[in-house]
Amino acid sequence: MQPSLHFFTPKHQSLLQTQSPLFTCKFIVNPAKKTVPRNPLPLLSPPAPSRSPPHPEVVEPMVQRERSNVLVPQHPNYPVHLNRFQKLAAVALDKIETSVIMRLEKDYVLPKMVDPEVQISGNFAPVEECPVHHGLEVVGRIPACLRGVYVRNGANPMFAPSGGHHLFDGDGMIHAVSLGLGNKASYSCRYTRTSRLVQEARFGRCMFPKPIGELHGHLGLARLGLYMARAGLGLVDGSHGTGVANAGLVYFNGRLLAMSEDDLPYHVKITGEGDLETIGRFNFSDQIDCPLIAHPKLDPVTGDLHTLNYNVLKKPYLKYFRFDKFGRKSGDLHVDIDQATMIHDFAITENFVVIPDHQMVFKLSEMIRGGSPVVYNKNKTSRFGVLQQNDVVGSGIQWINVPNCFCFHLWNAWEEISDTGDKIIVVIGSCMNPPDSIFNESKDTFRSELSEIRMNLRTRQSTQRVIVSGMNLEAGQVNGQYLGQKTRFVYLAIADPWPKCSGMAKVDLQTGKVTKFMYGTWRYGGEPFFVPDKKQTCNRNGNEDEGYIMGLVRDEKKEMSEMVIVKGSNMEQVAAIRLPSRVPYGFHGTFISQEELRRQVI
């Protein structure tokens, strides 16, 4: 089975620089009718025809391949640059994988959270790359302020997993909807060409372990040992990162950056035609050599980009730093925490950084005992660290306990003064219960409740209240022009039936009022993204909800995908853009205006 990678360059660095060859995913299914079997072999289908002139590309014909119990091809596709010894070693390691590891894995019943038949089924199944399609059908009118490109990231595994697979394990794919003058729209989607993906494409199959789906127990250790052997023999190279760049997106200092917290970000260029090209792994001009979390925070007032790095192997387990609006990095500030902790998100205020230290921790020793290295530590008390942004050593950080709190995402934070003159830090986030719902099965009903947490910096006491009960609200944001300042509204996905999203909600944080926009029967979406109608200022001269919310929606019955645009003030739809191919459910997105694109670093 040859990789559907329509270019070949023997040198790894040259591969990373190659611009927009066509990748095709190795398994495509009809999402409304099928799920992906444990060891599938694919149907390869060409993209839907474009309304625009043909795009120069090579597309494989639709071919039904015979079913096989083994993912590894009978005639492995070894890159030509391997020497004779490396090829012999590769054959030997492949034999160990197929005859020992995969045979043992077949006897293991996978939990639903890492079972490919669950995790990559329906509209969570991957799709092929799609070159730019112009002249899309638009229902309604695209608001004049929305001139630019909406991009959304997600997991889209290129190769069928041979063992466990978690939704977060898939290769990063960005979907782009370009909005132009004259009510015109176009669409494209491309893999982010990570070092990992490029190397696996050369072999035609998975070569790197899946950090969540496969690294469990003794078989996880075997998978890890197999990878280390391949790396030691020069078959794969992990020195350029092993991340998948599938989670967050941020546009900063003229660059679109694709983020996942297991690697440096990847710089992705948006072309004038609305296509996507991976420029490469981005180290901020040699200023960083460590992964960044998936949710950096862009201060709308200063233009600074704040971020964190966590280390699961050694101290310091956590570092904070930021980049000014010109991209110049501050010094590293080591945040003192007792154990390696999963910190997916954090918050900023005008003067502070607010860092969660919750109950999901990393214990690699659990693999030796047969368990997962991602552990829900019930004996740990959740807390938040409040750090002055101008603190250069971290000695002034204040830790405040907030029991029974796990916020996978934080939507905003700001500073207030109490009646007694105490400074209060207010945090708005979705509190998830059970805390390990994303990683482990539970008999308890999943809840993700929009909550307000108030922390007194003098007394170091906290309070917590649920703003909206009885409704799962996840994935969203506030008006980005008010980030770090007091906001009235937050826009979130209605995560029901979990993990699908049946609509979007506008929540008034003052009154608790919820205004819904429901997608309709058999229609589901993901994260809603708010775009201001005009540049808002933090002195309240404008209405905070003047703007539009956009999101991608899939009609599972009609098998149609579209982008909907909803007016923020009344939560009514103003436009829908019919997309030419299926768009799987994904993660996070952003909007880049025409003005910002003109300043794009190429």
TrEMBL record:
Co-factor(s): Fe(2+)
GO molecular function: carotenoid dioxygenase activity; metal ion binding
Keywords, ordered alphabetically: Dioxygenase, Iron, Metal-binding, Oxidoreductase
Sequence segments annotated as region (Disordered): 38-57
Protein name: 9-cis-epoxycarotenoid dioxygenase NCED6, chloroplastic
Domain of life: Eukaryota
Family: Belongs to the carotenoid oxygenase family.
Entry-linked Pfam families: RPE65
Positions contributing to Fe cation binding: 295, 344, 409, 588
Co-factor remark: Binds 1 Fe(2+) ion per subunit.
Any one of the GO BP annotations: carotene catabolic process
GO CC list: chloroplast stroma
Coiled-coil residue spans: none
Compositionally biased residues, Pro residues: 39-56
